[in-house]
């Protein structure tokens, strides 16, 4: 079942209450969830290179470096003797080795059942740090905010697309986790309902055909410290004359929040706020 794949957890001692659990946290959405639940003392180590701005306190020397997103410091992780390890898809290749060290929570979320898997993972993290009750309350509060956003989106006639920038190229990510957050969680209507097998370039032809009211942009390059999308991209002659560009709200989403974080109690709240900013 999908849930078992999304949150591999609750093996060994995590099934019972644990005093002062300590863990290695490789996912920033999980980190912001732990932070929101008041469990920062449960964080032993994390990858610090690209910590999102709203979690910058975890760059301090109080927390050890567990390697980067793809190359983990296995020696340090073993030395820490953690009670749990939280990973995402970026560390998938190391999952088997990590499971030999401690119980593993895979904080990945499915595109098709995004919100359901997010909630399941948040509860799993809450249980791991001994704050399951707090996690349930926090999810109820988050649900209230999401429902309010959905009601506003349903009432609005605006339709949107979600694009990703990577190394100078801007393409549609219509059925990604990012799009799920925009369209399924926040409820913003899709300007493009089609599913595509290959990459779709957001050029003049495509934008003219789809004619979105809102263009959301996830800048992968900016998130990882590479060259961000040129601020004059939409001012280029071939695009500036496109009605869709002239009339649309172009929303540059916070890069690290969207590309490196997400799926957490704080990040989903922040993401929904960004998504809803242009909704009338």
Automatic annotation (TrEMBL):
This is Petrobactin ABC transporter substrate-binding protein YclQ. It comes from the Bacteria. PANTHER family: IRON III DICITRATE-BINDING PERIPLASMIC PROTEIN (PTHR30532), PETROBACTIN-BINDING PROTEIN YCLQ (PTHR30532:SF28). The keyword Transport applies. It holds the Pfam family Peripla_BP_2. Residues 1-19 form the signal peptide. Keywords: Coiled coil, Ion transport, Iron, Iron transport, Signal, Transport. It is found in: Cell envelope. The keyword Magnesium does not apply. Residues 22-280 form the Fe/B12 periplasmic-binding domain. Residues 132-159 form a coiled coil. Belongs to the bacterial solute-binding protein 8 family. The gene is yclQ.
């Amino acid at each position: 079942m999908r849930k078992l794949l999304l949150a591999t957890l609750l093996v060994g001692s995590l099934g019972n209450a644990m005093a002062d659990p300590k863990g290695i946290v490789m996912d920033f959405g999980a980190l912001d969830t732990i932070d929101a639940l008041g469990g920062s003392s449960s964080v032993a180590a994390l990858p610090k290179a690209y910590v999102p701005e709203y979690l910058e306190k975890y760059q301090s020397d109080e927390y050890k470096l567990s390697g980067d997103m793809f190359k983990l410091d296995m020696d340090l992780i073993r030395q820490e003797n953690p009670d749990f390890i939280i990973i995402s898809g970026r560390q998938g290749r190391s999952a088997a080795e990590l499971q030999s060290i401690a119980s593993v929570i895979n904080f990945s979320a499915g595109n098709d059942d995004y919100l359901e898997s997010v909630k399941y993972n948040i509860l799993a993290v809450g249980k791991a740090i001994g704050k399951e009750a707090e996690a349930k309350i926090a999810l109820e509060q988050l649900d209230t905010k999401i429902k309010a956003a959905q009601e506003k989106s349903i009432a609005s006639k605006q339709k949107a697309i979600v694009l990703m920038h990577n190394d100078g190229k801007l393409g549609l990510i219509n059925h990604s986790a990012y799009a799920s957050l925009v369209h399924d969680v926040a409820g913003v209507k899709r300007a493009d309902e089609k599913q595509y097998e290959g990459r779709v370039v957001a050029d003049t032809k495509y934008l003219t055909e789809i004619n979105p009211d809102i263009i959301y942009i996830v800048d992968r390059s900016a998130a990882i410290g590479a060259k961000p999308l040129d601020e004059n991209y939409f001012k280029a002659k071939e695009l500036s004359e496109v009605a869709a560009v002239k009339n649309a709200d172009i929303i540059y989403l916070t890069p690290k929040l969207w590309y490196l974080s997400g799926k957490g109690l704080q990040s989903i709240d922040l993401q929904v706020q960004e998504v809803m900013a242009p909704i009338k």
